[in-house]
Write a structure and sequence with these properties.
- By secondary structure, the chain is α+β, with helices and mostly antiparallel strands.
- It has helices at about 35-45, 55-65; strands spanning about 10-15, 20-25, 30-35.
- The protein has one domain.
- It contains two helices and three strands.
- The chain starts with 10 loop residues before the first strand and ends with a helix.
Length: about 70
Amino acid sequence: MDEPRYVSKVTIVRDHGPIRRAHLPAEDDPIIFGTHDEVREHYGTPRGQYPDHATTLDYVVAAAAG
């Protein structure tokens, strides 16, 4: 079996609540994940408790569409 050609080295850090920082290769600044709109409502997080950020699902959809 061939060795993997690439292994992504990503680190995720949970700040508080739904807020997470993803440290990605080739990016100087972390990507911030959180919740917004319907997602926030689904999890029962009140508006204004945490800042709105794109969800991990938003990034997956964007990556798959690209």
